[in-house]
Write a structure and sequence with these properties.
The complex is a heterodimer of chains A (188) and B (709).
Chain A (H helix, E strand, L loop, with lengths): L5 H66 L5 E8 L6 E9 L2 E7 L2 H8 L4 E7 L3 E12 L5 E12 L4 E10 L4 E8 L1
Parallel strand pairs in A: 1-7
Antiparallel strand pairs in A: 1-4, 2-3, 2-5, 5-6, 7-8
Chain B lengths: L1 H68 L4 H14 L9 H4 L5 H12 L2 H13 L4 H17 L3 H9 L3 H7 L2 H18 L5 H10 L6 H15 L3 H12 L15 H4 L4 H25 L3 H9 L8 H14 L3 H12 L6 H16 L3 H29 L2 H15 L18 H8 L2 H50 L2 H25 L8 H27 L6 H20 L1 H34 L2 H74 L12 H5 L1
Helix pairs in contact in B: 1-2, 2-4, 4-5, 4-6, 5-6, 6-7, 6-8, 7-9, 9-11, 10-11, 11-12, 12-14, 14-15, 14-16, 15-16, 16-17, 16-18, 17-18, 18-19, 18-27, 19-27, 21-27, 22-27, 23-26, 24-25
The chains are: A alpha+beta (188), B mainly alpha (709).
Chain lengths: 188, 709
C-alpha cells in the first residue's frame, strides 16, 4: 500500500530523474546479461543432471547383470515370474511361494502393482539358486474371489533343474467358462 | 543222445546267430536312416527351441519393464529396458504383437519414461526419430504430444506450440485418454496465451469447453482466462468467471481405468487434486475480492474474502483485503480487529507488515491520531526488527546445511500436497518463514530444489552401491578361499584317481565278454543263481568221485551209475539253458557295458570340466576386475553428484538471497512510508496547536486497496 508515498515520489522525480534514467538503463542491461548467464547456468545444471541420470541407469544395468552373474549363475539359477489376467474373478492380495516345502517368498501386493500386472506387466517374484535335479514349487494365492469372497488356492509344479537357467511362470487367468479364476504354473 | 542234443543246440545257435545278425543289420540300417532323417529335423527343432526361448526371454524382459513403468518407477523401468537392450540388441523391434499392438509402442514407452525421469534430450531424440520413421497415426499423435511436452518443460514454448498443433482434434479424441487430452488442451491454452497475446477471449473459451468435466485443468484455465480478461480491461466478464471459480465446490475426483500414458501425465491422487482445487478457489476469491475493492464494491468484496481459508497459502493476503473491505464499508472497528490479528502474527510477510500502515490509516480516519502514531511507532520497531532478521536470514541461506535441510522438509511436506516452511521448522529461529515460503513456492526454486533432491537420491543410491561393491569384493575373496579348500579336499580324497581304476575294471569286464563271445561260452553270461547251481553240481561230482574212491578202498560195491547220470543230466540242463539264453544274455551284457561306458564318459567329461575349472584361476580376477571397474565408475559419479549438488546449492542460496533483498527493499519502503506518516501526523498536530481549527484528516490519504491491485 503506497498511500503515504506520493510526496516522496514527487521529490525524487525532481532531483533524481536524469541519473535515474541512466541507472535504470544500466540496471536493465546488467539484469539482462545476468538473466542470460543464469539461464545458461541452469541449462548446464540440467544437462549435468541428465548426464548423471544416464550414467546412473547404465551403472544400475551393469550392476544388475553383475549381481545376477555373481549371485545367481545360470547353472543354479531358478526364476519365478508372476503374470495376471484382467482379474474379473480374482483380486490378488498376496502370494506365498514354497520350493521343496520351504517358504522362499511371501509378497503382499499394492494397488499399483496389481494395476501394473493387469496392464501386461510381469513381476519377477523370486530368484534363487537350486542344485541340479528334481524340485517342487508350490504357490499359494490369497485374495478375493467371485462375489468378493475370501479365496485361497494353490498350484504346484515339479521341475528338473539342469545346467541351464530355469524360468517358471505362475499365471492367474480368468476363465469365463468356469466363471472362476484359473491358476497355472508352467516352465518357460 | 547228448551228441544229438549238442548238434541240435549248435544248429539252433547258428540259426539264431544268423537271425540276430540279419536283424542287427536291419536295425543298424534303419537306425542310420532314422539318424540321417532326424539330424536335420533335430537341428531345425533345436534352432526353433532356441528361437522360442529367446522370444520368451525377450517377452519377459519387456513385461518387467511394463511392470515398473505402470507403477511409476521410471528409473527402474529404464534400467530394465537398458538390460533388455543389452541382452537383445534391437530387441524392441521384436516385441510380440500382443504387448505392443493394444498397449504401447515400445520406443514410445522408452521416450515417455525418459521424459518422466527427466532425460529430456534422450526423450526428444526418440520422439523425433519416431516421427521421422513415419509410424502409425496413433504413435505419431502420441509422439507429437510427448515431444511438445518435452519442449514445454524446457521452456521452448514456440517449438512446443508447433508440436501440439500437429495433433488434430480428431486424432486427440480418437487416440488420447481423457486425462491425456486434458493435459494436451491445458498446455495448448497456456501456450496460446503466451504466443498469441492478441487472441480474442472467445477463442480461448474453447479450451474450457473441450476440457473434460472433472479435470483440474478447468480451474487453471478458467483462472488464467479471468486474469487475461482483467488485463484487457474486461472487468465484468472477469468478475463473472472468478465468481464461478470461487464458488466451485465440486471436489469430485474421478477414478478410472489407467491408460498407458497416465503414469507420464497424471498424478491421479485424490488428496492432491482436492488440495489443488482448494488452493485455486482461494486464489480466485482473492483476485475477485481485490477486483471488487478496486471497483468500489466493498460489501461484495467482504463476502468474497470471507470464503478464503485462513490456513491456505493466501490466508494472510486475504486477511489484509478483508480488513480493507471492512474499512471501505466504514466498519473501522472490524478492520482494526482483522489487522490486529495480522500484526500479531510472527511471520514478517508483506501482509503482516502492511497491516501496521493500514491500522494507522484506520485510526487516522477514525480521528484517533495518537493511536495512529502509536501503531506507526510499533510498525517502525517491527520493521527494524524485520531488517535485522532478514540480515540473519541472509547469512543463514548461505549455509549448505540450511539448503540440505529443506530437502527433508520438502519430502515430508509434499505428502501434504504442497511445499512450505512452517514456523515449527527447527532450522529457522527467524520469523522469515513467509519469505522462505514465497521463495519455496516459486517455480524456479522448486525446479532447483527438485534437481537437488534428485541428485541427493542418486548420491544415496550410488553410496549404497559402493557398499555393495565392497561386499562383492569380500564375497569373491571368500569364494576363492572356499574353492581352494574344496580343490584340496578333492585332491586329498583322491576322487580324481578313482575313475582310472574303474576304467581298468571296465576294460577287464569287456575283455571277459569278448572272450565269451569268441568262445561262444554261455556259462560266462549265466545268472548268479545258475552259476551257484553249477558250482553245486561240480561239488556233487567231486563228492561222488570221493565216495567211489572210498568205496573201492573199503572194498564195497561201487555206487549205482544212476547218480552220475543224474548229476550229468542236471549239468547238461544248466548248460543247455545257458546256451539258450546266450544271445539274450550277451545283448544284456553289451547293453550294460554300453551304459557303463556312457556313465564313465559323462563322469570323465564332468571330471574334465572340474579340472578345467580348477585350472581356470583367472576367473576370479576377471570378476574382481568387473567389480573394481564398476566401483570406479560409482566413485566418479559420486564426485560428479557432489559437484552438481554444490552448484545447485549455490544457485538456491542465490535465489533465496535475491528474494531476501527484494523483501528488504519492501521493508525499507515501509519504513519510509511510516516515517513520512509520522512526520505528517506531527505536522498536523503542530498545525492544530497553532490554528486550533485545522482539520486532522488530510487529503493526502488515498484509496489503499488500489495500490494493492
Amino acid at each position: 500500500m503506497n498511500f503515504y508515498s506520493e510526496k516522496t515520489a514527487k521529490i525524487n522525480s525532481i532531483h533524481w530523474s536524469i541519473p535515474l534514467i541512466f541507472a535504470v538503463l544500466l540496471g536493465t542491461s546488467l539484469q539482462v546479461s545476468a538473466e542470460q548467464s543464469e539461464q545458461s547456468d541452469n541449462n548446464t545444471v540440467t544437462e549435468q543432471l541428465q548426464q548423471l541420470k544416464r550414467e546412473v541407469i547404465a551403472l544400475n544395468r551393469d550392476l544388475f547383470v553383475l549381481e545376477e552373474d555373481l549371485l545367481f549363475p545360470s547353472s543354479t539359477q531358478v526364476v519365478v515370474y508372476l503374470a495376471m489376467d484382467v482379474g474379473t474373478y480374482f483380486n490378488l492380495d498376496a502370494v506365498e511361494l514354497q520350493i521343496d516345502d520351504r517358504v522362499v517368498s511371501h509378497h503382499l501386493y499394492t494397488e499399483k502393482q496389481i494395476q501394473a500386472l493387469f496392464k501386461g506387466g510381469v513381476q519377477k517374484l523370486h530368484i534363487d539358486n537350486l542344485a541340479q535335479g528334481e524340485h517342487q514349487l508350490s504357490a499359494f494365492f490369497i485374495g478375493k474371489g467371485p462375489q468378493d469372497r475370501e479365496y485361497k488356492r494353490a498350484v504346484s509344479i515339479t521341475f528338473t533343474k539342469t545346467g541351464e537357467a530355469k524360468s517358471l511362470e505362475l499365471s492367474i487367468i480368468d476363465s469365463s467358462v468356469k466363471q472362476q479364476p484359473v491358476f497355472e504354473a508352467v516352465e518357460l | 543222445m547228448i551228441l544229438a542234443l549238442n548238434n541240435s543246440l549248435s544248429l539252433r545257435r547258428l540259426s539264431f546267430n544268423m537271425l540276430s545278425w540279419s536283424s542287427t543289420l536291419r536295425c543298424a540300417l534303419s537306425c542310420c536312416l532314422v539318424l540321417l532323417i532326424s539330424l536335420p529335423i533335430n537341428a531345425q527343432v533345436n534352432s526353433q527351441d532356441a528361437g522360442s526361448t529367446h522370444t520368451v526371454q525377450l517377452e519377459k524382459a519387456y513385461q518387467q519393464v511394463l511392470y515398473e513403468y505402470y507403477q511409476g518407477n521410471f528409473s527402474l523401468g529404464l534400467t530394465q529396458l537398458a538390460i533388455l537392450e543389452q541382452k537383445f540388441p534391437n530387441g524392441l523391434a521384436h516385441i510380440p504383437e500382443f504387448l505392443r499392438g493394444h498397449q504401447v509402442e515400445p520406443e514410445l514407452l522408452k521416450g515417455g519414461m525418459s521424459l518422466a525421469y527427466g532425460l529430456d534430450s534422450q526423450a526428444a531424440d526418440i520422439f523425433l526419430r519416431l516421427l521421422k520413421d513415419n509410424t502409425s497415426a496413433d504413435v505419431t499423435a502420441h509422439a507429437w504430444l510427448l515431444l511438445g511436452k518435452t519442449y514445454y518443460q524446457n521452456h521452448k514454448f514456440s517449438d512446443a506450440a508447433q508440436a501440439f498443433q500437429n495433433i488434430s482434434q480428431g486424432h486427440a479424441e480418437q487416440f488420447f485418454e481423457p486425462s491425456t487430452r486434458d493435459s494436451w488442451l491445458y498446455m495448448q491454452s497456456q501456450l496460446y496465451g503466451f504466443l498469441l497475446t492478441d487472441a480474442s477471449g472467445d477463442e480461448q473459451i474453447q479450451w474450457l469447453e473441450q476440457l473434460s468435466k472433472h479435470s483440474i485443468y478447468r480451474d487453471y484455465v478458467g483462472y488464467n482466462q479471468a486474469l487475461a480478461l482483467l488485463q484487457k480491461g474486461q472487468g465484468q466478464s472477469a468478475i463473472a468467471r472468478l465468481t464461478t471459480l470461487g464458488n466451485n465446490n465440486s471436489n469430485s475426483f474421478v477414478s478410472r481405468w489407467m491408460s498407458w500414458a497416465d503414469p507420464i501425465f497424471s498424478e491421479n491422487e485424490q488428496q492432491q487434486v482436492e488440495a489443488e482445487r482448494d488452493a485455486i478457489r482461494d486464489r480466485a476469491n482473492l483476485t475477485l475480492g481485490y477486483t471488487l475493492l478496486q471497483n468500489e464494491e466493498p460489501h461484495q468484496a467482504f463476502r468474497v474474502f470471507e470464503k478464503i481459508r485462513t490456513e491456505g497459502l493466501d490466508g494472510d493476503a486475504a486477511l489484509l483485503g478483508y480488513g480493507w473491505a471492512a474499512a471501505k464499508k466504514d466498519e473501522l472497528q472490524t478492520a482494526l480487529a482483522i489487522w490486529q490479528r495480522l500484526m500479531h502474527m510472527p511471520q514478517n510477510s508483506e501482509f503482516t507488515l502492511e497491516a501496521y500502515l493500514a491500522s494507522a490509516y484506520a485510526y487516522e480516519k477514525a480521528f484517533a491520531p495518537r493511536q495512529s502514531l502509536h501503531v506507526l511507532q510499533l510498525g517502525l520497531t517491527r520493521y527494524e526488527k524485520t531488517l535485522v532478521e532478514l540480515g540473519q536470514a541472509e547469512q543463514q541461506v548461505k549455509q549448505r546445511a540450511f539448503i540440505l535441510g529443506l530437502l527433508a522438509d520438502n519430502q515430508s511436506k509434499e505428502l501434504d500436497g504442497y511445499v512450505s516452511l512452517d514456523s515449527g521448522d527447527k532450522s529457522q529461529p527467524l520469523n522469515s518463514t513467509q519469505v522462505f515460503n514465497s521463495v519455496v513456492v516459486s517455480s524456479e526454486f522448486r525446479a532447483g530444489l527438485s534437481a537437488l533432491e534428485q541428485s541427493h537420491v542418486l548420491e544415496q543410491q550410488l553410496q549404497n552401491w559402493q557398499q555393495r561393491m565392497d561386499h562383492y569384493h569380500l564375497m569373491l575373496d571368500e569364494r576363492q578361499i572356499e574353492r581352494t579348500k574344496r580343490a584340496k579336499q578333492i585332491l586329498q580324497n583322491r576322487t580324481l584317481e578313482q575313475l582310472p581304476q574303474l576304467q581298468t575294471q571296465r576294460d577287464t569286464l569287456a575283455q571277459v565278454i569278448d572272450t565269451a563271445k569268441q568262445q561262444q561260452d554261455g556259462q560266462i553270461f549265466m545268472s548268479q543263481q545258475s552259476q551257484q547251481w553249477l558250482n553245486r553240481i561240480k561239488r556233487s561230482e567231486k563228492r561222488l568221485g570221493t565216495i567211489a574212491q572210498l568205496k573201492t578202498q573199503l572194498g564195497q560195491p561201487p555206487l549205482a551209475d544212476s547218480y552220475h547220470q543224474r548229476v550229468k543230466r542236471v549239468a547238461g540242463r544248466l548248460m543247455w539253458q545257458a546256451s539258450e539264453a546266450y544271445a539274450d544274455n550277451q545283448w544284456q551284457a553289451n547293453k550294460a557295458l554300453k551304459q557303463l561306458d556312457n556313465e564313465i564318459g559323462k563322469t570323465l567329461q564332468g571330471q574334465q570340466q572340474l579340472l578345467n575349472q580348477l585350472a581356470a584361476k583367472p576367473d576370479f580376477a576377471k570378476q574382481r576386475l568387473r567389480v573394481s571397474n564398476l566401483a570406479q565408475r560409482i566413485d566418479n559419479q559420486i564426485a560428479n553428484t557432489n559437484a552438481l549438488q554444490n552448484r545447485l546449492i549455490s544457485q538456491l542460496s542465490a535465489t533465496f538471497n535475491q528474494f531476501i533483498q527484494v523483501h528488504k527493499r519492501k521493508v525499507t519502503h515501509y519504513i519510509l512510508q511510516a516515517q513520512l506518516a509520522i512526520v505528517r501526523l506531527n505536522d498536523q498536530a503542530l498545525q492544530k496547536d497553532i490554528d486550533g481549527s485545522t482539520p486532522l484528516d488530510d487529503t493526502s490519504t488515498t484509496a489503499p486497496a488500489g495500490d494493492k491491485l
